[in-house]
Structures are given as C-alpha cells and as structure tokens.
From TrEMBL:
PROSITE patterns: MARVEL. One of its GO terms (molecular function) is structural constituent of myelin sheath. This is MALL protein. The keyword Membrane applies. It is found in: Membrane. Keywords: Membrane, Transmembrane, Transmembrane helix. One of its GO terms (cellular component) is membrane. The chain crosses the membrane at residues 27-51, 57-80, 92-112, 132-152. It is a multi-pass membrane protein. Pfam families: MARVEL (PF01284). It comes from Cettia cetti. Residues 21-153 form the MARVEL domain. The keyword Transmembrane helix applies.
Amino acid sequence: MASVSPSAASTQPVLPSGPAVFKTIPYAFILPEILCGTWVWILVAATSVSLPLLQGWVMYVSLTSCLISLLLLLSYLLGFHRNSENWKVLDSLYHGTTAILYMSAAVLQANATINSEFGSNAPLNYQLNSAASFFAFLTTFLYILHAFSIYYQ
C-alpha cells in the first residue's frame, strides 16, 4: 500500500475559497475583470451604435465574459472547486481564450471609436467610445495577467 509523505501532500497547490479569493493572485483579478468588462458594455450601450456588427461583437464578448467570470468568482467563493487541479486548467484555458476574444473586441472597439469621430453627435459618441476602448484594452490586459499568473503560483 502506497502512502503519501506529509511533505508531498503539502506541495499540492491550495486553491482559495471564500474571502481568500480576493487576497490571492491571480484570483484577485476576477473582480476587476468583471468591473472593467461591465464598463465596456455599459459605455458601448450608451453610444449610438453606427457599426452594429463591430460593436455587437464587443457587446457579446464583454457581456458573456462578465457573466462567465461572475459565475467563476461565485464558484471560487462557494468552494465548488474542492481544491481540484482541474480547476486551475479550466481557469487558465478560460482566461487565455477570453483574453484573445477580448483583444479582438478591443481592436474592433478602437475601430468604432475612430469611425465615430466625425459622425452625428460626434463629441459625445467619440468620448464614450474612447472610454469603452480604454476599458476594453484594460480588461484584455487583466485577462492576460490572470491567464499567465496561474503558471507562476
């Protein structure tokens, strides 16, 4: 019968549960990801959408990512992971994929910002689109940090 030595058992990573999620990198990035992503879709929704295909993708990515990240945060807070190593893989794959999708959305939002510079109601739409572009790139950066910092735990 094989036994596990105490030192081998203690090297297994411990995934945070409850309030410890907010104190542990990379899991502390989840709440800022949700907040910045929420700002993206609020700001895009506040503009008069001149390019529905471009900004529709931005809205889809930001809203879907926000909801899935919220579910992931709740699962960490409630301890659904039960310290399984599979959750680290799931978390890394999700955040890596979302970073790529958010990068595409941020670039499309930047394009929509450039196109809104001279449209109807230009100053307000341009400012809202500029802010949405800023938060889209910031959210992309947060997702990238989260995805890569899992490997350096």
